[in-house]
Amino acid sequence: MMTFRKLLPAAIIVLLAGVETGSRACDTWVAMRDQTTCGYTIHAKNSDRPVFGCQPLVYNAAKKWPAGAQIDLVRTKIPQAAETYATLGSSPYWSWGYEEGINEHSVAIGNEAVWTKPLAEDAAAHRAGKSPKFGPNGMDLVRLGLERGKTARQALDAIARVVEKHGQFGSASPTRGVSGGYHNSFIIADPNEAWILETAGHRWAAKRLKKGATSISNALSLGTDIDLKSADLVSYAIGKNWWPEGKDAEFHFQHAYSPRTKKDDPVVTRVHGRAACSRRMLAEKPGKVDVRWMMNIARCRQIGLNITASSAVSVLPHTDAELPVYWWCPSTPAASCYIPFFVHGSGVPKIVSTAGTHGSAVEMPSKTKRDKFSDKSYWWLVRDLADKVRADPKTRAPIVREAFDALEKEFQNGLGDLVKTAAKLRKSGKPEAAAKILDAYTNECLKKVLVRLESLRNRFSEKPQPKSSEKGFRDVVGPKR
Fold first, then answer.
1. Which one of 239, 363, 477, 478 has the minimum C-beta count within 10 Å?
2. pLDDT in tens, 392-410
3. Cβ-based neighbours of 44, under 8 Å, separated by 6 or more
């Protein structure tokens, strides 16, 4: 069997080649403290969205809210919490929520689209003119969990409460109606534990992880090993004839609620194959997983088609001697560069939080317009580079990786005692001073990436670029490992 290192150059070339033919996919994975070289939990997510789906990185400060305040999610309104925590997240240009994000208490969340029997029923009811009420989408739930959870468990509870009360019906894809809707699964992590939370309409199941590493993708994956669940999860399935009566003790969540359970189903094969690939790569480094390896996983998908719009790797220290680091890159990771951002800073640079010509707004997905290129948007500049690499991936992909890999290593080495110094300043009652040095480092890194980005875009501008597919481009169809 060949090793990952031997395949990496070829895999990177494939990362940016070809055109996606019809599926959408995400992946989230986590390595707990016993699996990492730094002894901290590391959480990661690839967010796959339409190619025009600009995803600015945004910062929302902690805030206290008046009694009776509500959050307008366009599809629905829900009560606001009395207090929300500071968050940093990758937010599609039309959405209130985040594809992935982190909060000031070192909680990180990524979500996956999943398809369920309740979703199929809701879609049929909508077509028959008996539409269920619209609810929050998965991105809204990620942000809600981050704003309301000091721990992974608290974030899980917050998401579960919203799902039970409001459901999650409606589109979550720009320019599409309810056909662009889906239910959601999550990996929610903090420095001490992680939870896999999977939902089906108003119901949910969850599994706790204290050690080891795991990955999820675009299908329900929890079976009989469930640590928490909604009160009527089993009885509802029995009432729907999705699970046999009298077999409560043997209840299998995936088999009961998933519309696809056959092992040879091509969708099941592709989706679970991607998750298995991530798990295999995590298992290759027992006790030695680090930030660079998590980035390698993001850049090397073996099975499946991806429309990757952003990626993040979150380092979650369990000691207050350091602060969490949120490594984020826009567009496909293979043609991008991870930059360290900090939720304990004062915000993010304007070019990073800026969308394209459409701009950022909370809108009904079915009514929003496509975002388009703007040189004022960091996301679009990187996306433009990805398109240029696709014109000649064999030649250009290695050039991009050589340039950006060197910067990423430089950024990681440059962190040094920065986060420790910032943590000390915060403990001594000087959060503004801490934020200042964190902001300065992010700005320094960003400037270096922008210089390199402009150089690469100019270098690759001599040839006509292929028109991007309406459905997106293939992020990875990796070779056999």
1. 239
2. 999 999 999 999 999 999 9
3. 28, 29, 30, 110, 294, 297, 298, 311, 312, 313, 314
